[in-house]
Specification:
Blueprint (H helix, E strand, L loop, with lengths): L5 H9 L4 H26 L2 H8 L3 H7 L3 H13 L13 H16 L2 H13 L6 H23 L9 H10 L1 H9 L6 H17 L5
Helix pairs in contact: 2-3, 2-5, 2-7, 3-4, 5-8, 6-11, 8-9
Pfam families: TetR_N
Keywords: DNA-binding
Organism: Novosphingobium jiangmenense
Length: 210
């Protein structure tokens, strides 16, 4: 015979999902949505398709994300949260820390979904200018601002400026931009390591060739 103490447990199992269960479902939805956006593009992706693929009802999807733009924005933020943070190890010099950061940045941004989201933006930004806001926010809040804070501690960025930081990031990401914009091949791991060393050397010491 079931005791009174067991009854609330049974009722909880039949009741609303736990906060952790909901969090996992929401995270799964965004991973699924990122994949669909990458494969089909922003224009062709539909909320109905995302809901079906993620195994949630349309009502649930719209409760979490008001429209497709909001869903895309959440997908961008999911990727931006994976950007590496420059957190030097004890005794690690700035050169080594920056080189490691460039390597980790390339590892993240050449992931299939990350690279695909960048390519999607380049293809469809002119038609859907509203996409730019979320891309720019993710870029600044999760890449530029944290790196600028680190560079200020080293005296390598001025005041509240992010100009030098953005120049460094532009150099660091140039192989990806070359691949996306002009069709050049992405470098292999050896090439990325050489690029990281060259990029950091130029940033720290100037562009004069010895």
């Amino acid at each position: 015979m079931e005791t009174d103490a067991a009854a609330p447990v049974a009722n909880a199992r039949r009741g609303r999902p736990s906060a952790e269960s909901t969090r996992l479902r929401m995270a799964h939805l965004l991973e699924v949505a990122r994949g669909i956006f990458v494969r089909r593009g922003y224009r062709a992706t539909t909320m109905d398709e995302v809901a079906a693929a993620a195994g949630v009802t349309k009502r649930t999807l719209y409760a979490w994300h008001a429209d497709k733009e909001a869903l895309f924005r959440a997908c961008v933020m999911l990727g931006a949260e994976r950007f590496p943070r420059i957190e030097p190890g004890e005794g690690e010099d700035p050169r080594a820390a920056l080189e490691r950061y460039v390597l980790e940045l390339h590892q993240e941004l050449t992931r299939e979904d990350s690279y695909g989201m960048g390519a999607l933006f380049l293809r469809e930004a002119a038609e859907f200018p509203e996409l730019a806001g979320s891309i720019q926010r993710g870029h600044f809040d999760f890449m530029i601002a944290p790196l600028a804070a680190y560079l200020r501690k080293l005296g390598l960025e001025e005041g509240d400026s992010t100009e030098r930081t953005m120049l460094f990031v532009a150099m660091a990401l140039s192989p990806l931009h070359n691949a996306m914009l002009v069709g050049m091949d992405l470098p292999d791991s050896t090439g990325v390591a050489a690029h990281a060393r060259r990029c950091v050397s130029i940033f720290l010491g100037g562009s004069k060739v010895d």
